[in-house]
Amino acid sequence: VTKKTGSSFIGMFALRVVMAFVVAIFLNLILPPNDTPFMQTIVAVNDTSIAGVLEAWLRSSLSLVVTIVLIVTGLMILQRMLTEFHLIEVISRPLRPLMKIFGLPPSSPFLWIVGNLVGLAYGGAIMADMVEEGKLSLDDSNAVNHHLAISHSLLEDTLLFVALGISLWIIVGTRLLFAIIVVWGRRLIVTRHFSFKNKISIFNKRGYV
């Protein structure tokens, strides 16, 4: 999916690992110390045969596959319907100022909503579909990938962490802050890179090099 949407798998993997450490260090520096331990509940599981374990694993895997197929298919149908009735434009318009702050293209609001409501995997499938149809450029989808690599499943993850007693504002604010830093940092690097290449090209044409 990352390759189809203009991003490098290794690059995205490295970005997420590095930023995990960066964000952890940042939060460790700004948050007050808390000596209250998290409690872990241990549930006893009855011993069972290998056949029973394999059967349970197979059922769980098949259930997961069916769920993923249904969700992705449903999202694709929704995206086609919204496109057919020109509703993506209606949804996107009020979110475009926010996308501008995030450093994302005007075509990204629907993908941003999907990525934050149902997750990166499902959002990636929709993004790949839009790229194949020519409704989204590889450069734009790459920018969205960089944002969602840092901040995705915002609804589900936030609810889970809030249930553990972590501040909603810290979870949401930190993820969005570093997503903005990553996207704008990438844009700055890309802009300087192309500016440097253009200068070299001009020098070559004028015979300076």
From TrEMBL:
Membrane-spanning intervals of the chain: 12-31, 56-78, 109-128, 159-184
Entry keyword Membrane: yes
Keyword vocabulary terms for this entry: Membrane, Transmembrane, Transmembrane helix
Record-given protein name: Nucleoside transporter/FeoB GTPase Gate domain-containing protein
Source organism per UniProt: termite gut metagenome
